[in-house]
What we know:
By secondary structure, the chain is α+β, with helices and mostly antiparallel strands. The protein has a single domain (21-96), classed as Glutaredoxin, CATH 3.40.30.10. Helix content is 38%, strand content 25%. Helix 2 (26-40) runs parallel beside helix 4 (87-96). The N and C termini lie far apart (26 Å). The relative contact order is 0.24.
Amino acid sequence: MSKFGExxxxxxxxxxxxxxxxxxxxxxxxxTLKAVAAAxxxxxxxxxIDVDKNQKLSEALxxxxxxxxxxxxxxxxxxxxxxxxxxxxxxxxxQDHINV
Length: 100
């Protein structure tokens, strides 16, 4: 988990998207996350985390509902929401934490 901590210890916001590969809505989540990443450019990061491949992390963060989205900045969670989110909402939330 030390690599996870290093990943989040940044001044730019990081969006974590917890998902399950065999989930039927995965295609929509992929499109949404690509749109968010494109809109942010280098002002933020978007990271997909497969709960099946990262069970310890998912359990540690108490991910129960998929998808679950979290925004971290300076190693601190600043936002969390479970359920489907649209790209514009995620972009807006991330932009609120750029240069703050």
